[in-house]
Fold this protein.
Amino acid sequence: MKIAIFTDTYDPDVNGVARTLRRWTCYLETKGVRTKVFAPEPAASLQQNAPTHSVERFVSLPFFLYPECRLALPNPAHIRREIAHFEPDLIHVATPFNLGLFGIHYARKYNIPLIASYHTNFDQYLSFYNLQWMEKLLWRYKEWFHRDCKAIFVPSETTRLDLIGRGWEPSKLKLWSRGVNHGTFHPMVNMREH
């Protein structure tokens, strides 16, 4: 199996989405599943740590509201060539921005099954930026973005129930819990040692 992953954040970025996707791609590789990640170039300070295996990077700019996040400037011809060469069995969109939109476009264009992972409640950030007037529009966009997904993986039962309450199809919403690395984090760790 081959999975193309479209995301606007990926390792070495330091955030939950980037780390989740990196752990997941590493896990998939151990199971013989090939992945190809489409992601923005990381910030210059992180580039020396950026993985290069199976990652297609695109020129990016800092997002003006949240400079730690980068907005990719994708090259459609390059993406089309990579999709044609890689021939994915599945497209996974992890973020609803530039690269996620390209993932949806190519899933539709080439009739490739589409799944998504839902990571962030962006509507909860709107008031912080005095943009709460956009909430209804944002929810319409998120519903449109996820419309063609065969499955949408959510991080918690609370998120699943919230989306069901907003009218999302319950059968599409699948729990994707993250877990805890019990080799690193466990009750017997003496906090003074760290």
